[in-house]
Design brief:
By secondary structure, the chain is an all-alpha fold. It is 65% helix and 0% strand. The protein has one domain.
Length: 157
């Protein structure tokens, strides 16, 4: 039905759109704002989530470069190796997981209920239009090796 959207929007663009919509929603619907925690606590929680997200993303990109394969999310068929080491032992999509953590950090900072909806929408959109097409390409390219990996490592965490 909407398969024309598969692998078309770079995940970073989807992430940026979600972050922008979170901000615009928080500004335009202030009644749904969550009571803010004391500023140091809110700042620390948001910073920790953001740093964890950046760390996970960085580890994912580093593992791909170390394996000398492409990090290009729009061309999964060009990957040269199935990377199953490093952070890929825990998540099949650590870069997207890191992005999700950063969006969650932004939601904490904005302290708005609807911001969490965009975090969920990001995960749903990426799973349908990015991750599942990537998985199809990896299954086609690596066959049973990918099937074994997918059975042992979760899609997100």
């Amino acid at each position: 039905m909407l398969s024309w959207l598969e692998l078309k929007l770079p995940p970073a663009v989807v992430w940026g759109l979600c972050a922008l919509l979170m901000y615009l929603t928080a500004q335009s619907v202030p009644k749904l704002a969550i009571e803010r925690a004391p500023l140091p606590l809110q700042l620390v929680l948001a910073a920790v989530l953001a740093l964890v997200g950046i760390g996970i993303m960085g580890a994912g990109v580093f593992a791909l470069y170390q394996a000398r394969t492409t990090p290009n999310p729009l061309a999964p068929h060009t990957t040269r190796w199935l990377v199953t080491t490093g952070v890929y032992r825990y998540s099949r999509n650590p870069i997207y997981l890191g992005m999700l953590c950063c969006l969650l950090a932004w939601a904490v900072w904005l302290a708005h209920l609807l911001a969490l909806v965009y975090v969920w929408l990001f995960a749903v959109y990426l799973t349908r239009f990015q991750i599942k097409p990537e998985e199809r390409a990896l299954r086609q390219k690596f066959g049973e090796a990918y099937e074994t990996y997918a059975r042992s490592v979760r899609r997100w965490i």
